[in-house]
Write a structure and sequence with these properties.
Order of helices and strands: EHEHHEHHEHHEH
Helix content: 55-70%
Bound molecules: thymidine-5'-phosphate
Number of domains: 1
Distance between the termini: 12 Å
Radius of gyration: 16 Å
Strand order of the largest sheet: 2-3-1-4-5
Length: about 200
């Protein structure tokens, strides 16, 4: 059986850089790796992503949670489950903790509703390991603003919204220390990558 590692954190925490570095390293260790993201990871999921993250859409929190759950269900069945059954390492840019942070803490959707939706999408299965890249939202948003893309619907939310996301990621990590590891994302790229490698070595290899 393979392993699912999710990467979480606020916007601009550097997840995609770190996923690419870990993927290269795991391949050097002889592992087969699938890099993917949520919402997304399939053509259908990428279409949902576009509905969710770009432009000035007026979804409320429940509608957002339903959208990401539809994409997650498809991604789980089409990509993640088959890859895990084939013994691969799946590195996923965001997963269910983002729903708890953005739609739960950010938009106020009750935890119980989000748990039911996760049950529908994955049967309640969570990642084997979750790397939370923790960053001060002011700094993260400054970094994210440098990216030339149109995926800024959440980035435009008030700083208080982003602070709630950060607090939620940290409280998930505190409640689930076996699954989650918090890494200081204000460190340099190489220092962060080294910490991630050592956690993966210690817990999953
Ligand atoms: P990214 O650009 O950081 O990869 O993520 C895309 C956006 O999708 C991000 O701003 C957060 C949002 N999102 C949710 O709101 N709920 C979710 O469950 C997921 C996976 C992402």
């Amino acid at each position: 059986m393979g392993r699912l590692i999710s990467f979480e954190g606020g916007d601009g925490a550097g997840k995609s850089t770190q996923i690419a570095l870990l993927a290269t390293w795991l391949r050097e260790q002889g592992r087969e790796v699938v890099q993917t993201r949520e919402p997304g990871g399939t053509p259908e999921g990428e279409a949902v992503r576009n509905l969710l993250v770009s432009g000035a859409k007026h979804w409320d929190g429940v509608a957002e949670a339903l959208l990401v759950t539809a994409a997650r269900r498809h991604h789980w069945r089409q990509v993640i489950e088959p890859a895990m059954k084939a013994g691969r390492f799946v590195l996923c840019d965001r997963f269910s903790d983002s729903t708890r942070a953005y739609q739960g803490a950010g938009r106020g959707v009750p935890r119980q509703v989000l748990d039911q939706l996760l049950e529908l999408a994955t049967g309640g299965v969570l990642p084997d390991l979750t790397i939370i890249l923790d960053i001060d939202p002011q700094l993260g948003l400054r970094r994210a603003a440098r990216r030339q893309d149109s995926e800024n619907r959440f980035e435009r939310e008030a700083i208080e919204f982003h602070q709630r996301l950060r607090d939620e990621f940290l409280s998930i990590a505190a409640a689930e220390p076996v699954r989650c590891v918090v890494i200081d994302a204000s460190l340099g790229i190489d220092a962060i990558a080294e910490q991630i490698r050592s956690v993966v070595k210690e817990r999953l290899l």
